Amino acid sequence: MTDIKELFADEVVTRATVRDVELPYGAGTMALITLDNGFDHTKPSTFGPGGLTSLNEALDAIAGRGDLAAVGVVGKPFIFAVGADLKGAAMVAERDQALAIGTLGHQVFRRLGELDVPSFAFVNGAAMGGGLEVALHCTYRTISSGVPAVALPECFLGLVPGWGGTQLLPRLVGPATAIKLIIENPLSQNRMIKGRDAFAAGIADAMFEPADFLEESLRWAARVLRGEVTVSRTDHTAEDWSKTVADARFLVDMKLRGASPAPYRALELIELARTASREEGFDAESQALAGLLMGDELRAGLYSFDLVQRRAKRPAGAPDKSLARKVTKVGVVGAGLMASQMALLFARRLEVPVVLTDLDQARLDKGVGYVHAEVDKLLGKGRVSGDQANRLKALVTGSLTKDAFADADFVIEAVFEDLKVKQQVFAEVEAVVSAECVLATNTSSLSLTEMAAGLRHPERVVGFHFFNPVAVMPLLEIIRGEKTDDATLATAFSVGRSLKKSSVLVKDAPAFVVNRILTRFMGEVIGAVDEGTPLEVADHALDGLGLPMTPFTLLQLVGPAVALHVAETMHAAFPSRYGVSENLARLVAAGKPGVYAPDFSLDAEAVTLFSGGTSPSTAEEVRLRALRALEEEIRIMLDEGVVAAAQDIDLCMILGAGWPFHLGGVTPYLDRTGIAEPRFLPPGVASVPA
């Protein structure tokens, strides 16, 4: 068996250095361990075999010292520690290696909870994964109110907290809160909590401000040691863990439909924590971690993680940043819901004036009113101060004429999805703005080149396709028309970065990336129903993928009329691959919002509109039909140069369509399942090396 240290040959070792600190109030000497990989906060401290060994040696150095009153652990500035070094973990090829990683982490970390003296974790910065587990092993914890991220994100990557998290956290804060941090948050776009939230949840025993955090933490530790402060612990083992876990399993089933093993293993471990000894619980964690390290899911999760953390920050094909023009005012054509959401986002992120226009005062007032109401909600949640709220409201105004755009640098339209309407809008805007003003369109499917054809300056038209809800969905498809110039494109990418969106450069092609793939996918499922497949069979045929919603639930969200319009647009472009369902057209004509009633039961009347076919398919046949269609469409898109590479397709689907993170994107999944022939990506990418 290869030694695990060889797998982590490129590890940036987090060193554990020890210094003695004389505690105030005569409380004695503390051995303070500092975790630091030698880099600034942009390269957080992680744990591979080298880092674990260094911490173990630090604990060896203080073991048995009779002069110590306590042991403390703190991180480098802004970072406590952020977990395991997963680059080496992805190289694991044998179960014994995987088991050794889990066992080593437990052997080292548990020492902090089994010392002869109390241990204190001073969480001064981001604490994630194994970093948070270090703190959980300590007897006491303080946290800085400025900590930006506290999380156990392992389930997000297809793993479980494997160094004590599933055993220690539920005993500390109760099973419900533990499940939220270990499972619910990772499955909700890897949500993290802040220092104040961690303190409120009971993860930390005391909280101090960042400016004098360590000093105050040492004073607090001294008072604990002197008996002046008593930390009470709630015994959560008496709670009904079974019901809490069962409820959580139901929610996980609703979200993943059994597709991802990690959250289910995490639930089993959390339930075990109520009765298991430390030895039993830690061994169960190591065994679970070893099993998951040997699967495709971790590699797929790491592939997805690399896309959203690296590729998204360096968009393929984006022009040089220096070409971007400064944006000091934004115009939004339209005052509907999408336009209003965009206006609020521009105001919050760019902090520049934003003016909405529409056809009548009532619509305009409704749009501006929406923005002001959302700002009030932010104020109520404490996300903005009173002064910030007033400034945001003042930045967003309305006008009945487009003359208000005269000094705008960036104008985006969000009007009805009709080419002629959009052409007219741009002609009116061009008449009043400067020659350098960027004209952006939020179209989801129409040709950018045709939209710009009648303008004096078609080179300054760019696609800027948001996804709904605008504030939440991270993807921004930036579309380059035939005549879009580099300065316009660079400005669009600059604005996208300022909006904190992940931008992908897309060629001007029908429906671009996400809507094109989803429309093909939906078309195949709807087509199977049209042919006679029972609606429920077709709708649940792809449950095994763990998609965020079934096809007909997605239809309900998008709206049948919108779905029909996009299908008609795609059919006009690619009639051999995209059909138009007559049954869907009847659903629209009947005014139905979809096939489901408000209580999520099937609407019998709506279902009858899809009856009449005589060639039903099995669920497996529907699944293969949909996946093969995806494979074909993606290959055609890559041949057409719609995006630079398969990775951009995967990035778009993960961030714009909620394609499950644990699958590693569309193309790796199609590769692993043998649907893609030839493969989209080299062997071993997002899968266990052969």
UniProtKB/TrEMBL annotation:
Classification via CDD domains: crotonase-like (cd06558)
Name used for this protein in its record: 3-hydroxyacyl-CoA dehydrogenase/enoyl-CoA hydratase/carnithine racemase
UniProt GO MF annotations: enoyl-CoA hydratase activity; long-chain (3S)-3-hydroxyacyl-CoA dehydrogenase (NAD+) activity; NAD+ binding
GO biological process, one term: fatty acid beta-oxidation
Domain 3-hydroxyacyl-CoA dehydrogenase NAD binding: 329-508
Pfam families according to UniProt: 3HCDH, 3HCDH_N, ECH_1
Reactions listed under catalytic activity: a (3S)-3-hydroxyacyl-CoA + NAD(+) = a 3-oxoacyl-CoA + NADH + H(+)
Annotated ranges, domain 3-hydroxyacyl-CoA dehydrogenase C-terminal: 512-594
Record keywords: Fatty acid metabolism, Lipid degradation, Lipid metabolism, Lyase, Multifunctional enzyme, NAD, Oxidoreductase
Family the entry assigns: In the central section; belongs to the 3-hydroxyacyl-CoA dehydrogenase family.
Pathway(s) served: Lipid metabolism; fatty acid beta-oxidation; Lipid metabolism; butanoate metabolism
